[in-house]
Amino acid sequence: MRRSIIVIFCILSVRIIAQTQDQNLIQFVNPLVGTKNMGHTYPGATVPFGMVQLSPETDTVQYELNGKYNGDVYKYCSGYQYDDKTIVGFSHTHFSGTGHSDLGDFLIMPTVGDLKLNPGISANPESGYRSRFSHDNETAQPAYYKVMLDDYNIIAELTASNRVGFHQYTFPKSDSAHIILDLISGIYNFNDKNVWTFVRVENDTLITGYRQTNGWARTRTVYFAMVFSKPFYQYGHKKYDQSIYKGFWRKFDESKNFPEMAGKQIKAYFDFKTTEDEKIKIKVALSSVSAQGALKNLQAEIPHWNFEAVKNQSQELWNNELNKIQVETGSQSEKETFYTALYHTFLGPITYMDVDGAYRGLDQNIHYADNFTNYTIFSLWDTYRALHPLFNIVQPVRNADMVKSMLEHYNQSVHNMLPVWSHYANENWCMIGYHSVPVIADAIIKGTLPAGFKYKELLEACVNTAENKYYDGLDYYMQLGYVPEDKSSSSVSKTLEYAYDDWCIAQIANKAEDKVSYEKFIKRSQSFESVYDSSIGFMRPKLSDGSWKSEFNSLSTHGQGFIEGNAWNYSLYVPHQPDQMIKMMGGKDRFVEHLDSLFTMHIDDVHFAETEDITRDGIIGNYIHGNEPGHHIPYLYNWTNHPWKTQQRVRMIMQTMYSNTPDGLCGNDDAGQMSAWYVFSALGFYPVCPGSNQYAIGSPMVKSAKINLDGEKLFIIETKNQSATNFYIQKIILNGNDLKRNYLLHSDIANGGSITFFMGSKPNKN
Asked: Most distant CA pair in the chain: distance in Å?
């Protein structure tokens, strides 16, 4: 009887703790954290997984320069660079720290004085409508951004709901106040990126329209509805088109007070007279379907003009999401680093449908999401590794909807393929592999998909994706058991990633009770063995005749069969068979020596120059943390007799490669993957192999954590004697019992319970 009472008390205690009041966690988030001189995260206003990402643009660097790629544009993948001194405006769509880009739609800039429709150049801000600004007068919080535009003495404030951006501009007294709507401006812009733009002035406070672009997404249309809190007294636009044909529109003076604007290159303006400190507010709603859809979104989400109410409601949404993991750390900076990382993981994928469920599909037809939220921006080569596994713990319902969104993509695809890297009803085919598959497998294996999903339907989509012969060397892979370098570049990386994806398909087939598919894909998952050259101890590109590529440099990336990594890093990419990989590479002792060398060797400038998306701060020896292919590598010591070296490595990475400063990331955040690695690692475990039910143990950075799970369950993490120097695990207690393995099962977390890490300054080698 006493034991029953104790059990009941423990259950009640867990439920009481789970229902404790949310903490104010947005104070620990710094949206200005990004990567120096690379694809910075955007610091503006959005809600979790919001369709609108309203944020400042700090320059207008073109994608091309003298007919060639302009390398400087890479710094502006997210539109914002912390080191810049000017702001050119505020646009409504952004990527978070990606290595390629698009978007930057509907740029708005408030000005006073002479009307200027050209942004000018940063070296001479007076040459255009841009303005100087100072970080001393800049505030960035979740769902809120504020800055003083020094050249105009205008205070700009931004907030947002899911589908609506809300601007508030405090003007000085002026008879010449302007709101500029730049429909040419965009991220990764070039002369022909705009296919068409269209604007209707419905009345003196409402305009509607759309923008169609051909960029990374080559057929992308975004509609808008824009409403002002105060009537404008005049308006106009300038058309920068080079078309010879003018039609019979030439009978009108379209440039001023003409209520219809159309063309490839348009900049509009709306004029006001303002009193001192007068606020002009603007709401901009987006839709992929129609201007009417944008109006519906506007009316449903922000039918009023209370800026503070929207800000508070949206920040409360962030608090709700951030409170899914409540941590205590050893310092304020560690806490800010953790919650900034968690914030980054909830920026996307983004909602991609109107309030009535309508959205533009991959086939460019209008579809309706039936009982699910449709999402877009799937940077899957990055995010399958840790972001989606994190969602399976703290965002299982959203992640299930993301899987459904991927399945809808497949159903609309003329290629019968799941998304590779997709956004805004477009497949852009960026990177390699078919990494929708591990996202689906991970959700299935961890039991986070609701009953409505049919495993056989998901299996069919995965199999058809994996058997598309014209996709990226798959025909040779299926014939030869590897991708030959003379037929398809980056062949080793493709072979290794296909092999892992195929293992994931086998896991799905097992769940679907399809033995034929299981045997087929479990065999294909062994393809990594085909590209391992035992004579040199590295994965190596093969040619179509079965011979090894003769000229080979294990330190080089270019032309060596790899992408965004070299042989040292990619040779360790067998996440589904680490034991077999270690055996193949000479056994545990030899493998530890190899791992140690990776972390301690020096990579010279010639080879460092070939690494993408990182600075020197993003590498340890030849281990490249600033890019994704190696994110699992520090955890591989767990499959050897030296697991304490994982504890040492992951703690070193957390301490040296993440911070709460504007250059706090050592590589592109890549839609949240870099941050998801930190969230997992700070909690003390990591999903080395998504699609399995295991998480490898690392070294927790937090003092304690409470993970609020669905169903009012709670998983509590405690550490004893943890510090910057005490990062070695002495023992682990899971739910009152000694943990005798160096991994957690998903059920250990998902069922709720507690884990305690006892830490020390020296490794426990027993």
From this structure: 93
Report whether the peptide linkage leading into residue 349 is cis, meaning its omega lies within 30 degrees of zero: yes
Query: Average pLDDT of 651-673?
Result: 95
Q: Strands 174-182, 164-171: parallel, antiparallel or unpaired by DSSP?
A: unpaired
Q: Which candidate, 416, 385, 311, places its Cα nearest to that of 675?
A: 385
Of the candidate CATH numbers 3.30.420.40, 1.10.3720.10, 3.40.50.11260, 3.30.2080.10, the domain formed by 324-760 belongs to 3.30.2080.10
Q: What CATH code is assigned to 33-314?
A: 2.70.98.10
Q: Which of 127, 114, 110 is nearest to 60 (CA)?
A: 127
Residue 380 has pLDDT above 90, yes or no: yes
Show Cβ contacts of residue 487 under 8 Å, excluding neighbours closer than 6 positions.
473, 476, 544
Element (H, E) at 91: strand 89-91
pTM of the full structure? 0.96
673-683 helix and 644-657 helix, angle to the nearest 10 degrees: 130
What are the extents of the domains in the chain? 33-314, 324-760
Residue 54 is given by DSSP the state: B
CA 37, 97, 654, 595 dihedral sign is negative
Average pLDDT rounded to a whole number, residues 758-762 = 98
CA dihedral defined by 427, 433, 438, 441, rounded to 10 degrees?
Answer: 90
CA distance 45 to 316: 13
CA–CA dist 687, 692 (Å, integer): 8
From the number of C-beta atoms within 10 Å of its C-beta (0-12, 13-18, 19+), residue 11 rates as exposed
Distance CA 570, CA 493 (A): 7
What percent of the chain is modeled with pLDDT above 70? Answer: 96
156 vs 575: CA distance, rounded Å: 48
Average pLDDT over residues 750-754: 98
Residue 432's pLDDT band, with cuts at 50, 70 and 90, is: very high
Cα distance between residue 509 and residue 518, in whole Å = 5
Q: Is the alpha carbon torsion for 170, 172, 178, 181 positive or negative?
A: negative
What beta strand segments (E) does 568-675 contain?
Answer: 619-620, 623-624
For residue 132, the cross-strand partners are 86
* Dist. CA 117–CA 177, nearest whole Å: 13
Question: Where on the phi/psi map is residue 424: left (φ > 0), alpha (ψ -120 to 50), or beta?
Answer: left
Our separate counts of H helices and E strands in the chain read 19, 38
C-alpha to C-alpha distance for 50 and 34, rounded to whole angstroms: 19
Q: Is 147 helix (H, G, I), strand (E, B) or coil?
A: strand
pLDDT digits (tens, 9 = 90+) for 207-239: 999 999 999 999 999 999 999 999 999 999 999
